[in-house]
Amino acid sequence: MSQGLFYDYWRSSAGWRVRIGLALKGFPGAGGFAGPEGFSRIAVNLAPAISEQSGEAWRAINPQGRVPALVLAQDPPVLLTQSLAILEWLDEIRPRPAFLPADPTGRAAARAFALSIACDIHPLNNVSVLSFLRRQFMADDAAISAWCQEWLRIGLGPLEENLRRRGYQSGFIFGEAPGFAEICLIPQLYNARRFQLDLAPFPLLGEVEAACLSLPAFADTAPERQPDAPPAQ
Ligand SMILES: N[C@@H](CCC(=O)N[C@@H](CS)C(=O)NCC(=O)O)C(=O)O
Fold first, then answer.
1. Which of 14, 90, 93, 171 has the CA that lies 20 to 30 A from 83?
2. Ligand 1, from 45, 127, 131, 191: best to mutate by most atoms within 8 Å of Cβ?
3. DSSP structural state of residue 139
4. Which tens digit of pLDDT belongs to each residue from 98-109?
């Protein structure tokens, strides 16, 4: 019997946030395998040709249709959605290691960094948004790529500047350990590469990424390591 079900998709960057969160908090199974102390991971296939997110079976569980989601094994079962709400919940049920700095000002800054990604960058590159651009405005691959790169550049630039102004040189952003900011940033940089954005103008964000990917909680939960990822070519 696991703690519940974790609905995810290998290439979902919001899902990767929760995989990292579960791993940092020491829940077994965050890398994609079930365990009695962890969450059993169930893949929802978001690939355009399959679009399980629009299917009745998944909508009956999560009316919003998005991943990630947790269904806690309680009576009755409890649905948790929205990656940042799930991360807050994880931080509340297992306070160590903390996802936020101790001081209120640091907490606000770390939340702002994470929200810039989760609210201002990620939604514009989402599957449903890109599908609508193709369907409604006949956007081809080049147009989709230009769209994604534009919003990524506009979003990542101020985050690079944020790090420069705080005198960041290496390691984690808000202390000795990764938290909300890094958990949102690393999957977003993965997405940026997927959309062929040149990351050379963001060297400090690259430093944060290197520090994070040296940790198993980030490396072992990477998209390609998930059981529903297609085999490497
Ligand atoms: N704000 C939500 C975003 C969730 C979300 O949009 N997930 C994407 C995958 S990364 C999704 O399910 N997309 C389906 C769609 O766009 O139809 C969160 O942080 O959990």
1. 171
2. 127
3. -
4. 999 999 999 999
How much is the pLDDT for 34? 55
Amino acid at 116: S
Cβ 45 under 6 angstroms from ligand 1: no
Asked if the model's pLDDT at residue 37 lies above 80, the reply is no
Whether the per-residue pLDDT at 31 is higher than 80: the answer is no
Any bridge partners for residue 6, and if so which? Answer: 41, 70
User: How many Å lie between the centroid of ligand 1 and the Cα of residue 15?
Assistant: 8
Please give the distance, rounded to the nearest whole angstrom, from the Cα atom of residue 70 to the centre of ligand 1: 14
What φ, ψ does residue 27 adopt, rounded to 5°?
-85, 120
**Which one of 126, 144, 185, 191 would you pick to mutate in the ligand 1 pocket, going by the greatest count of ligand atoms within 8 A of its CB?**
126
Is residue 124 packed enough to be buried (19+ CB in 10 Å), middle (13-18) or exposed (0-12)? middle
* Mean per-residue pLDDT over the chain, rounded: 94
Spatial separation of the C-alpha atoms in residues 196 and 194, rounded to whole Å: 5
Q: Is 131 in the pocket of ligand 1 (CB under 6 A)?
A: no
Ligand 1 closest atom vs CA 67:
12
Q: How is residue 125 written in tokens?
A: 């590159």
Q: Kindly state the greatest CA–CA separation across the chain.
A: 50
Task: Tell me the pLDDT band of 96, cut-offs 50, 70 and 90.
Answer: very high
Domains of the chain: 4-96 (3.40.30.10), 104-217 (1.20.1050.10)
Mean pLDDT of 71-89: 96
Spatial separation of the C-alpha atoms in residues 208 and 124, rounded to whole Å? 23
